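Researcher: Re-running this chain for the archive, since the previous output was lost when a drive failed. Same request as before.
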Amino acid sequence: MTEFRDFPFPLNVLLTVLEREEGSANVVAMHYGLFEAPGDSIAAAQERSTALLLSRLPPPPARLLEVGIGLGTTLARLAAMGYAAEGLTPDPVQAAAARNRFGESIGVHVAPLEMFETESRYDAVFFQESAQYIESGTLFRKVRALAAPGARLVVLDEFALAPVEKPDALHRLDHFLEAARREGFRLAEELDVSRQAKPTIDWFLERIPRHRRAIEEGLAVTPEQLDGLLASGGDYRALYESGAYGYRLLRF
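Model: Regenerated structure tokens:
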């Protein structure tokens, strides 16, 4: 449990639950899974999500930029597949975790996308649940500056599909796509995987209470914080059930 103590709340809680349920930190990933059957493990569902993303990338040895590396698992996998893969994170804790897992040679840059500068030009730039943290117009302008001619942009993320009146609401999908059009990006594919992604929320809401004592003691998380996390998770599930939130693969 100590591996995730320095991650911010509630990420430290979610990662700890994944580790305790799966029995090894080596299989933990920081993204939704795509479930096809009630008996699917979280590891199998997360692998299905990553496989979907990878299937939309150009073949190796293309030069790739992953924006938002999580724990570095996908970045290391791409390098092993023969890609010239680099990753970007604004969080030095995530960068340190990736280097600790996969070695100092892993190609991680510590900077927000908005401030990232490089001479490299990429054949594909992709976001797995990281586009939601970046203003949409800025995202597309920056990707355009980083992209080689004919490059792909792939986004696998959550979106608001209807107006949601709350300060931390997800990007509206229609606004995101309009920002893409304004910046000269053509949508080549939109795949709705909301039904497969939603069980990830249920998975956590069922399992966080199982590990409550260990979380509170090991992560110094208060009971009030966990109560709030479970309540907000219930609200989040309701947004998916109502159709206000959804999960999409977008390829430009």
